[in-house]
């Protein structure tokens, strides 16, 4: 019996984690944009893998340089920046049929000096990290916004009761506990009217608003999603982190028609009430041991009924189910 032939499978390549910082110094009040960008190309790269022929290989160094060159004119929203990179590589090289571009965006605050925000000195913000992914697949464009490290905690209005008990269950039921998590969320922007899987990709005419691709205003969407996530976490009583996750996702889908679905990965950062009786003290839910591990890990997608999730958009996003 002959062995099956060995063939090349799916492949992509590019430059990972290009750290690009853009300072806009048009006035004395400088602006700063700080991104970590990964560019990966897909297409016909067979000969590079099979024959050592690099005639189709756009060097990863060139991809890195392209990120820096595109930043020269200003970055804008990470989603729009990644879309510009996708357009460039897929239109400039006819054997590049698609790819995946990913960014983390780090926020900086102005340093306060004598009550005034400084013009050109910044302190890295304690805020969460914004994330973005663009997947180009032929003419299709999938845009995923997101955030990670949005650490939240509520000191009451959270419990965990009614779970099954077996011979291994020791956890006491509680109607009042601390609930804390680091929210990681990714949301897929809905494809717009006229956006086909195949040809006929809109040229951005029409809508006018947003980031110049005819799509949503990604910065405004980001701030809205962030505010809705925080609001839902704060406002609703939590019977479990699972229910809170679904509330947070529902709130976003109710309020943001431009978003098709949202996925979460949220650790349950347990806060255990410390037994102070050995010291002759009571502890009415005031002193906690904040354990860092193990932690519960709650993951789910919140979707719209009947809206099919494009698997290609989510491929390569680790840590979400
Ligand atoms: O919100 C919670 N969900 C769980 O699934 C769980 N399991 C557990 O031990 N504590 C909690 N809390």
From TrEMBL:
Active-site residues from the entry: 15, 60, 270
Bias (Acidic residues): 196-216
Region entry Disordered, spans: 191-217
Residues reported in the UniProt entry to bind urate: 60-61, 160, 177, 242, 268
Record's keyword terms, sorted: Oxidoreductase, Purine metabolism
EC code(s) of this entry: 1.7.3.3
Involved pathway(s): Purine metabolism; urate degradation; (S)-allantoin from urate: step 1/3
GO biological process: purine nucleobase metabolic process; urate catabolic process
EC class: oxidoreductase
Any one Pfam family match given in the protein's UniProt record, by short name: Uricase
InterPro entries: Uricase, Uricase_CS
Catalysed reactions listed for this entry: urate + O2 + H2O = 5-hydroxyisourate + H2O2
Free-text function comment from the UniProt entry: Catalyzes the oxidation of uric acid to 5-hydroxyisourate, which is further processed to form (S)-allantoin.
Protein name: Uricase
Origin species: Agromyces badenianii
């Amino acid at each position: 019996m002959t062995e099956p032939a060995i063939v090349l499978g799916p492949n992509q390549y590019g430059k990972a984690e290009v750290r690009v910082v853009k300072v806009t110094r048009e006035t004395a009040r400088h602006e700063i944009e700080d991104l970590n960008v990964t560019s990966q190309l897909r297409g016909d790269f067979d000969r590079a893998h099979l024959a050592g022929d690099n005639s189709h290989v756009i060097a990863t160094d060139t991809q890195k340089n392209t990120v820096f060159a595109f930043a020269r004119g200003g970055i804008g929203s990470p989603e729009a920046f990644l879309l510009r990179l996708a357009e460039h590589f897929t239109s400039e090289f006819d054997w590049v049929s698609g790819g995946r571009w990913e960014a983390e965006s780090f926020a900086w605050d102005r340093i306060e000096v004598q009550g005034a925000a400084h013009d050109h000195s910044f302190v890295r913000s304690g805020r969460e990290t914004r994330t973005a992914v663009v997947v180009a697949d032929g003419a299709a464009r999938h845009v995923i916004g997101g955030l990670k490290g949005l650490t939240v905690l509520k000191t009451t209005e959270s419990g965990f009761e009614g779970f099954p008990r077996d011979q291994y269950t020791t956890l006491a039921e509680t109607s009042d506990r601390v609930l804390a998590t680091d929210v990681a969320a990714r949301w897929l922007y809905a494809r717009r009217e006229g956006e086909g899987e195949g040809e006929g990709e809109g040229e951005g005419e029409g809508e006018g608003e947003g980031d110049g691709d005819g799509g949503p205003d990604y910065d405004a969407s980001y701030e809205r999603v962030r505010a809705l996530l925080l609001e839902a976490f704060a406002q609703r009583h939590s019977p479990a982190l699972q229910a809170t996750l679904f509330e947070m996702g529902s709130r976003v889908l109710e309020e943001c028609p431009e978003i098709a679905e949202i996925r979460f990965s949220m650790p349950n950062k347990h806060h255990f009430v410390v037994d102070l009786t050995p010291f002759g003290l009571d502890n009415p839910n005031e002193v906690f041991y904040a354990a860092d591990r193990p932690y519960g890990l709650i993951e789910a997608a919140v979707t719209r009924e009947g809206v099919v999730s494009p698997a290609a958009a989510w491929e390569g996003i680790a840590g979400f189910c």
